[in-house]
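Researcher: Go.
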Amino acid sequence: MSADPYEAADLIAQALYSLRHSVTAPASAGHDAFGGHVESLTEAVMGQTAGLHAIAAAIVELAEAVRDCATTQEETR
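Model: Structure:
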C-alpha cells in the first residue's frame, strides 16, 4: 500500500463500496421462502433461516411422534 494517506483512504473507500454492493441489490437479489422478492443478501439469509427453522420444527414433531409411538408400544406389551 502507498504511504500516501489520501490514496490509502481512497482504496479503503473503494473496498467498502465493493463490499456494500456485494451484499445488497442487485448483486444478491433473490426470493424468500414464500416466493417474494428480496433485495439484499441479509434478506435472503433471513428467508433461508426461516425455512430452516420450519424444517427443524417439523423434525422435532416427527421425533415426538416416534417417541409417542414407541411409548405406546411398550405400554401395550
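Model: The CA atoms of residues 14 and 59 lie 45 Å apart.
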